[in-house]
Amino acid sequence: MSQLTIHLIANAHLDPVWLWDWQEGLNEGIITCRAILDLMDENPELTFIRGEAAIYQHIEEHDPETFARIEAYVRDGRWDIVGGTYVQPDTNLPATETFARHFARSQNYFQSRFGKVARIAWAADSFGHCAGLPEILAAAGMEGYAFSRPFASELTLPKCAFWWEGPGGSRVLAYRVPVGWYGSEREELLGKLDSTLAYAAQDDTENIACFYGVGNHGGGPTRRHLAEIREWAERHPEVRVVHSGLHRFFDTLREEGARKGEDFFPTHRGELNFCLRGCYASVAQFKYAYRKTEAALAGAERTNSVISAALDKTPAPLNASWDALLFNSFHDILPGSSIERAFDQQLAWMGTARHEGKRAELTALNALAMRVDTRVPKPAPDMPSASTLLVWNPHPHAYHGPLELEASLDYRPIWKYNNRVNDVPVEVRDADGKGVPFQMVATEHNSMPTLAWRKRVVINAELPPLGWSLFTLGYVEGAEVVAGDAASAVTAPSEGVIDNGHYRVEAQAGSKSVQVFRNGQSIFGDAGLSAVTVSDPWGSWGAMDEDPAALDLSNVLTEWSIDRVETLETGPERAALWVRLTGGSSQLELTFLLYRYRDAVDVRARVHWNEHQARLKLVMPAGDRAKFDVPGGSSERPPLGEVPGGRWVQVHGAQGDFGFASDALYNFDCKDGIFRATVARAGGWATDVTGEQDVSPWRPPADTGSLRFNFILAPGGADLPRLSRELEEAPLAILAPAKPGDLARSGSFASLSPETLKLLALKPAEDGNGWILRVQELSGTATEPQFEWLGERLYLGTVQSNRIATWRIVHRIGGWGVTAVDIQERDISGS
What is the pTM of this model? Predict the structure, then answer.
């Protein structure tokens, strides 16, 4: 047998935000790196790994001398740039494209500064890893993945080194820290080396890694560590001890695997979960803001890009907004495990990123509006003209569904209809000037309710893919009412009941649940849709010791009751039923919306949360086995307690598949035929103390106050992912000036089909050369994309099952050209 080699992996895990704010965290990055560089100067054998482009950027900007020293050691091969990400993100909750952007942004930065990129990803401390991550890593050109959690006590693996395979067959060589954690205490290293040697005796791998270095608030290897390494190596001449890095270590592992045969490293398929499950629901107020920013930024960038390409304009820059989003995906920010003061600042940062995305979006839409023929009919003498609304569909498929439009009917209230606001004659016309059936609904304000001034309508719209259509909304005396299809009208047959022909929703004060029927059959049985408060005394991460009671939160404290029901709207297009539930000291308002033609129930939710050591769950008895949307794919799961999930969940039940989608929730559980979604948990801020409110009642719980989110109840079929995307990114309407233009009143710039291909990104290339298109195939079948781009059909080849594919689109003489690239936007067309 060959000699055992222990690879010493010195690192300094640094959370840029945790028990401190981002200013302290990033400045500690400077301090830590200066200290390590001094130690490397003194000890020529010492090597070190460092990831996180955000920390390198901070050092480069504020301490260029230290940055130059790092550059020198990178050239010497002693400083190993690893990870390839902006920070070490949570690896269960962000969107697929957020991970892709981590690698695109960060690897381009590393290439530009150091002439090399990371090939080995590094997730020292993230709390479990989604099943689709190998597809993302492989598409980014990563060859290996090193991680520490879940520990062996939480997840059994046959070896610390293994092939991790994604749903599309992409795989990376993965390595879990075999002994202890990713670092070491000051006095721990000798014992850790002994334990590593003992572990190696049970493993047939010749190369074992020993991760060491003081951390969490920076730190790294110490002089004592280096002295003890020399001492231990002298006492164990049978072992080869080398100062290494992740690239050297993984290259050696690959060589060993090639030498010993393809099956030497076992293959693991599926997720690497679960641990620290409280993080899937902690600090809902930040999670909600993050999800909305993530969706808004992706949509704004897509809109900005396609319109800029079509109009030959320079797109508004959004890199700073993306960097903000990437930073806030960090595994102690998005999971909700940092201090309250830090979250105040991170929420402000998210707001800035979202605002800049909306600014870029408005700039692009205004540029489009100035080119479109937006003329309106000439009004009668001394009458206001209609308002022109340009409506944009941010999706690569046609949109068919409800659309709300609101505008002022005149520059002043229409006094003629004072106290007769419902009598004011209004008409809505489409891009062809034809009348559109509509329903008047309440405006977003309740100011001057007796005056006719602004009006809001809901219509059933059809919008072209990644395109626009014009609608006009105006006050016209003698306006002709355009009737919709009477057979498809939405009704409110009795108090507390609404019905659209597909769905029927019933709620009565005093009941504990809302009844929801589809085609006459209750989708939740006699129990209906309800809400409960369950006990949850554990800290931010849940139970640190994996207490079984914390993994299956079923101790019900309160069954919520309906205390009031109001039918808010009825009409030909929509009915709205407002239901208020109370539980403990909290309230939950659910507004159920049923639309004409729509085979789904839309729900607007607002919770006023004022509980301690508890969490609120929506309870839906529809099944206890489900497919969960996760980054890079999906995961089928039986009942497993509290689990993370993404935009949609397809629940498998006795009556068939049921679909749930939301724009904010990340935590779910299934048990005894029941699917439950966590809305909020009243835990502490950055605490691992169980029952903190009993011990320290002056410490505030997280998430008290008001939270808003939206969700959809629908069949669990192929339309569910599309419905979830449209929920997060609704069509956009802007007020436009009426004028001639050279573009038609309705049109499309791009489209992608079939819908089983998920559009991840349509963006400017990082180097400014052309545009980047990225998709993922999610049907499980190799698919040939049909992609229309500015009037041309571009051939993209075939996207293999569940794979991520990226292309660069550039303008050439005679048309557009397409080249296959990886996530880092490197040409792979010849590979």
Answer: 0.97
